Amino acid sequence: MASITSESFKTGFLPTWCPGCGDYGIWTALKIALAKLGIGPDDALLVYGIGCHGNMYDWMRTYAFEGLHGRALPVAQGAKVANHKLPVICVCGDGDCLGEGGNHFIHAAKRNPNVTVLIHDNQVYGLTTGQASPTAKPGFKTKSTPDGVTDEPINPLTLALTAGATFVARGFAGDIPGLSELIVQAISHKGFSVLDMLQPCVTFDKVHTYAWYRSRLYKLEQPENKIRAIEKAMEWGDKIPLGVLYKEEKPTSEDREPALEKSTLVESSLDVADLPLLLSEFK
């Protein structure tokens, strides 16, 4: 059997992202991480949201599903319940996951399914040409906020921490080796893993550039307790932390589901003779 490398995920189609887009770094880091973990094209399910990130569906050779805008997490959780032995990775954007999908994000974190969430965080809706996203900072000028954003941004890290995620980290699309290692850790963690990935949008965000981030980013030495992790998550401006902020081991939603104790649902069979008894439970 041929070894799995980043080349294993080629589809024959080339990305159409803008030259210099942070999505290229994330795409490359994800392929490297999957190869390191020995997860090949047939070994996992990637669930995509709608946005520039979702176009990765066309040039990433894996089993995949692209859901409705903001609805990637319900699909990912459904797949995980059906086959809880299958690695399920949700690739979403800050607008997709934290805007339309914000409610799903909160309740998924609370349930703690063994699902990995990779958030492309660029503060804009890039696919629809640069409106402000839920993570856009006050004063940031976009097509939808020509005088600058006036409301407070959603912080993906503090939201994940307070909602119950058991692995919370931040990476940078301009640091492919570091980002690929964080993706490895996120996928390897058993529980709801959230990796917020700072992704420069070179076309619609002229403020948060690669140079802007590199002058501010610093790496955390080790995960913190939850209170310290929240404090680190709230750092933004002259100093922005990268790395694993928090992780803990807790039973997942699959662990707590009696129907999954003996086998996965996809391995189970329903005998026709059992059907009358099953239906009688609903009378």
Automatic annotation (TrEMBL):
Keywords: Iron, Iron-sulfur, Magnesium, Metal-binding, Oxidoreductase, Thiamine pyrophosphate. PANTHER family: 2-OXOGLUTARATE OXIDOREDUCTASE SUBUNIT KORB, 2-OXOGLUTARATE OXIDOREDUCTASE SUBUNIT KORB-RELATED. GO terms for molecular function: iron-sulfur cluster binding; metal ion binding; oxidoreductase activity, acting on the aldehyde or oxo group of donors, iron-sulfur protein as acceptor; thiamine pyrophosphate binding. NCBIfam families: PorB_KorB. Residues 201-261 form the Pyruvate ferredoxin oxidoreductase beta subunit C-terminal domain. The lineage of its organism: Bacteria, Candidatus Gottesmaniibacteriota. InterPro entries: 2-oxoacid:Fd_oxidoreductase, OFOB, PFO_beta_C, THDP-binding, TPP_enzyme_TPP-bd. This is 2-oxoacid ferredoxin oxidoreductase. It comes from Candidatus Gottesmanbacteria bacterium RIFCSPHIGHO2_01_FULL_46_14. GO terms for biological process: cellular respiration. Its cofactor is [4Fe-4S] cluster; thiamine diphosphate; Mg(2+). Residues 50-196 form the Thiamine pyrophosphate enzyme TPP-binding domain. Transmembrane segments: none annotated.
